[in-house]
Amino acid sequence: NDWILFQILSSLSVFAVSFRTPDIQREEEKVKRSVKDAAKKGQRDVCVILAKELIRSRKAVSKLYASKAHMNSVLMGMKNQLALLRVAGSLQKSTEVMKAMQNLVKIPEIQATMRELSKEMMKAGIIEEMLEDTFEGLEDQEEMEEEAEMEIDKILFEITAGALGKAPSKVTDALPEPEPMGAAAAVDEEEDIEAMQSRLATLRS
């Protein structure tokens, strides 16, 4: 049991350190600048697409913070179990650890590892057997719904300082007509679109 606890603690510590958000937040700032540029060029559709990506990235950051809290809860529980084992020579079941693990196994990126750790905890008698349906149907399906349109409006209003979008009502403003583009401007726009696609890919990864 002592060895199992050390293994679990080691694995959890590695994952706890990996829960960081600066990369996502840096990309978010780049996308914000892209929204402003697209708004100036009258590219409303591009603004909406980028706003949706910002909403997804902010949700991702919120989930990371919540997941880190669950991870820290499990780490603390494991340290308590290790101390208990050394003093009393036995382990106790922990409902707090079990609840935290049930949340962690729902995260696609670490689901496989958390599932294996849960099995080890069950063998050690730290948590009860988790229901099989806890592990099933856990794929995150965060599609943008119609009700998200209001949130898109808020994002656009926020980034463009009120030039585009309304908070909280739906966007009805028409963007100003873009100036006619010459050949050089057309090339610049293609490069802008490629840069945006690259940033969106980074946000999704």
UniProtKB/TrEMBL annotation:
What is one GO biological process annotated to this record?
A: vacuolar transport
Region Disordered: which residues? 170-205
Per UniProt, what is one Pfam family of this protein?
A: Snf7
Give the signal peptide, or none: 1-18
Q: Does the keyword Signal apply?
A: yes
Q: Which UniProt keywords apply?
A: Signal
Family the UniProt entry places it in? Belongs to the SNF7 family.
Q: By what name is this protein known?
A: CHMP3 protein
Q: Which organism is it from?
A: Calyptomena viridis
Gene (name only): Chmp3
